[in-house]
Amino acid sequence: MCQMSVILEQDGNETVVAESASLLEVVEDGLRISTLFEEPRFIKGAAVRAIDFLNARVTVIRKGDEA
């Protein structure tokens, strides 16, 4: 099984949102992130910036923070 870390990049800082994400869904107002043993998390106004398959890492940003 392949699970990924989800990292929120904001104002030059990185925050781990989920250590073992099993599902990331793009929904109307942002992203929903599910793990195996926790309730899904919702990041309002977020978008995927990059997916690093080699290092099992997804970087997300808040819309409007693209630089």
Strand coverage percent: over 45%
Number of helices: 0
Strand arrangement in the largest pleated sheet: 4-3-2-1-6-5
Shape assignment? globular
Largest sheet: 6 strands, mixed
DSSP helix fraction: under 10%
Order of SSEs: EEEEEE
Low-confidence stretches: none
Briefly note the structural class of the backbone.
Answer: mainly beta
- The tally of domains stands at 1
What's the β-strand tally? 6
Residue-averaged pLDDT, rounded? Answer: 91
Taking all Cα atoms into account, the compactness measure Rg is 11 Å
Question: Termini separation (Å)?
Answer: 34 Å
What do you see in this structure?
By secondary structure, this protein is mostly beta strands. The chain has one domain (about 5-60). It contains no helices and six strands. The chain has a six-stranded mixed beta sheet, with no helix packed on it. It starts with a strand and ends in a 5-residue tail after the last strand.
Provide a quick synopsis of the model.
This protein is mainly β.
Which terms summarize this structure?
67 residues, mainly beta, 6 strands
Please render the helix and strand layout as text:
Blueprint (H helix, E strand, L loop, with lengths): L3 E7 L2 E15 L2 E6 L5 E4 L1 E7 L4 E6 L5
Parallel strand pairs: 1-6
Antiparallel strand pairs: 1-2, 2-3, 3-4, 5-6
